[in-house]
Amino acid sequence: MSGAPGEGLIEIVIRPATVDDEDALVALQHASAIHHASIDPARWRIPTLDEEMMSRRYWHAVKPRDDAFVAVVGGQAIGMVELWLRRPAGPPGARIAMLKADLAISVAPEWRGRGAGSALLSAAEEWARAQGAERMVLDLSSANAGALRLYERMGYEINAFEMDKPIEPDAGTVDEPGLVRNADGELVPTLEGEQLTLRPITASDRPALFEVLSDPSVVAVWDTRGAAVSTDELLAGDEGWTVWAIDVEGEFAGSIQAAEELDSDYRHAGIDIFMSSRFQGRGLGTDAVRMLARYLLEVRGHHRLTIDPAVDNARAIRTYEKVGFRPVGVMRRYERGNDGTFHDGLLMDLLAGELR
User: Using CA atoms, how far apart are residues 147 and 145, in angstroms rounded to an integer?
Assistant: First the structure.
């Protein structure tokens, strides 16, 4: 029970978060950003709601949470806690290895200090114990005195300090506007062709990317988890992956991606591509694959490329053969389709000197 604004005692209910809560969670996180910007403006800014939404999508694609809970009063979400299990990694060292639960918590401004934070932390700890966790972990701005008091009251202790100092970077080290880096920190180039341009994909492409991934012809051969998940993952990026937008006369036609294996014993790159049905059958896919293959071979220095269409995707296989890819063999029950069953895939490769 808790005293609500302008009311008597109100019950705060803690329940698991659902997909339907996402709009409320974005609003809670946005309110938290406003609070942090007010108490520490040198390190925090106030994003727009759209920026907050895109940021959440990005980080949840990069590092999906393991669970989440919301605090609800009268059907309204007034707080949330999200949780990530952190398992010990690497060889043992001086630091004692433990399974930890990392948490992030936000409470609506008008409900701070009324018990919602304590209730959410208790639910988080109960969940963590059930997962076998030995310690709860969170990070905190040194300016957030109110949150510090809550955590100390709940038994949390300071075990480390992060210190920083503002410095002015050399002008030549700052990226110019418009430059894009992949998840590995490397600049993504724009590749120009006669019919199309491959340019770095950006967050502003989200609506167009979602639309293409919703195209029935793409849905039939792409990720079974749905357009929203695929969109978030492509925009989030991943280590070893680089994603380009396929631009045809200023229109977003699709996307092409490269996955690079840099281990010297197995060095190679893989290519994947999808395009809107409006742009299929015009030779644009062939050009896009050829352009990226040339870049991977001649600029990135790979000696071998791979691509893996479904074995019954005859149109894609013809496209890749025109570029120089050759069938290697059938990978049985390689990929799950939208019918829920696993389908065979065709492994194809191309060696340096075979590009057409």
Answer: 6
Helical spans, DSSP H, in 154-263 = 206-213, 216-219, 227-236
> Which H/E stretch holds residue 81?
strand 76-86
Phi-psi sector, 250: left (phi>0), alpha (psi -120 to 50), beta: left
Distances (CA, A) of 338 to 219, 222, 234, 262, 335: 8, 9, 19, 32, 10
What's the whole-number mean pLDDT along residues 77-103? 94
Per-residue pLDDT tens digits for 138-165: 999 999 999 999 999 999 999 988 888 9
How far apart (Å, rounded) are the C-alpha atoms in residues 152 and 260? 46
pTM of the entire predicted model: 0.72
Q: How far apart are CA 12 and CA 75, in angstroms?
A: 10
Phi first, then psi: give them for residue 122, nearest 5 degrees. Answer: -65, -40
**pLDDT tier at 224 (50, 70, 90 boundaries)?**
confident
DSSP β-bridge partners for residue 302: none
The three-state secondary structure class of 209 is helix
* Residue 237: per-residue pLDDT: 86
For β-strands 13-16 and 67-73, DSSP reports them as antiparallel
The pLDDT tens digits for 167-214 are: 888 888 888 888 999 988 899 999 998 899 999 999 899 999 999 999
Closest CA to 274 of 207, 322, 216, 356: 216
Burial of 148 (0-12, 13-18, 19+ CB in 10 A): middle
Q: Give phi and psi for 186, each to the nearest 5.
A: -90, 145
